[in-house]
């Protein structure tokens, strides 16, 4: 299948654009995912450790009222879905937060998984090297995940618009170039057919215009050679006629 220069330009530019955008978007999305995961993990672990250190005395004294007030305050923190305190035997001492989040089994997110809407973290309650229980917290990441999803959607939309604009530009540039080349082709075809009057006269200053100037000079030279050859032919014909008359006169005299 024969592809025009314009089609080749559109396909080539489009392919390069798509490949580069894929690499760029993958790098950006990967960076956002890694940095966001690291920040969420740091934040969750920090909250859990502070929570465990603060609740240690109440756990040792089994002050359930203070623990409940503490988990209520922790769960009321913006972005926190729940907070709970469990003793060393696994018994629940206090908890507060979103009811649906509290019903979910505790699970630490893996490194290879995407950020869940509910990110959980835990920290041990320790005093003098002894384990007295565990603090569990859950962070509500729904708004953050929605913002990241919206960012990805916008990035993909911008990439699609960029590819479209690049395709439109390459189509326009290809069309303009093809028109100029077509004009050159017409001039060359007319010159081959014996019509040397056509000129390209491309006024753009680029390599194509330089080629057009060379074609115009070649056409002008062909016209001059054609006229010179015609003039020589006419001169030879006149000389031939003169010689024939001279020969005829000599025959008459003889």
TrEMBL record:
One of its GO terms (biological process) is signal transduction. One of its GO terms (cellular component) is membrane. Pfam families: HAMP. The chain crosses the membrane at residues 9-32, 156-178. Residues 201-253 form a coiled coil. Signal peptide: none annotated. Residues 175-227 form the HAMP domain. This is HAMP domain-containing protein. Gene3D superfamilies: 6.10.340.10. PROSITE patterns: HAMP. InterPro entries: HAMP_dom (IPR003660). Keywords: Coiled coil, Membrane, Transmembrane, Transmembrane helix.
């Amino acid at each position: 299948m024969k592809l025009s220069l314009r089609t080749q330009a559109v396909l080539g530019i489009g392919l390069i654009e798509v490949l580069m955008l894929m690499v760029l978007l993958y790098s950006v999305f990967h960076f956002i995912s890694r940095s966001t995961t690291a920040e969420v993990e740091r934040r969750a672990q920090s909250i859990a450790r502070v929570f465990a250190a603060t609740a240690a005395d109440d756990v040792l004294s089994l002050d359930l009222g203070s623990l409940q007030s503490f988990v209520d305050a922790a769960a009321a923190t913006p972005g926190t879905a729940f907070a709970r305190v469990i003793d060393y035997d696994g018994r629940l001492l206090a908890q507060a937060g979103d009811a649906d989040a509290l019903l979910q089994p505790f699970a630490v997110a893996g490194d290879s998984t995407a950020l869940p809407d509910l990110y959980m973290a835990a920290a041990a309650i320790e005093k003098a090297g002894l384990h007295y229980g565990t603090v569990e917290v859950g962070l509500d990441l729904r708004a953050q995940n929605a913002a990241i999803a919206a960012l990805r959607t916008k990035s993909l939309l911008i990439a699609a618009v960029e590819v479209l604009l690049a395709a439109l530009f390459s189509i326009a540039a290809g069309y303009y170039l093809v028109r100029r080349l077509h004009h050159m082709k017409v001039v060359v075809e007319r010159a081959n057919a014996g019509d040397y009057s056509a000129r390209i006269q491309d006024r753009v200053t680029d390599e194509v215009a330089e080629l057009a100037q060379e074609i115009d000079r070649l056409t002008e030279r062909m016209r001059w050679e054609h006229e010179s050859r015609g003039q020589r032919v006419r001169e030879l014909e006149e000389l031939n006629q003169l010689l024939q008359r001279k020969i005829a006169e000599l025959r008459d005299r003889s």
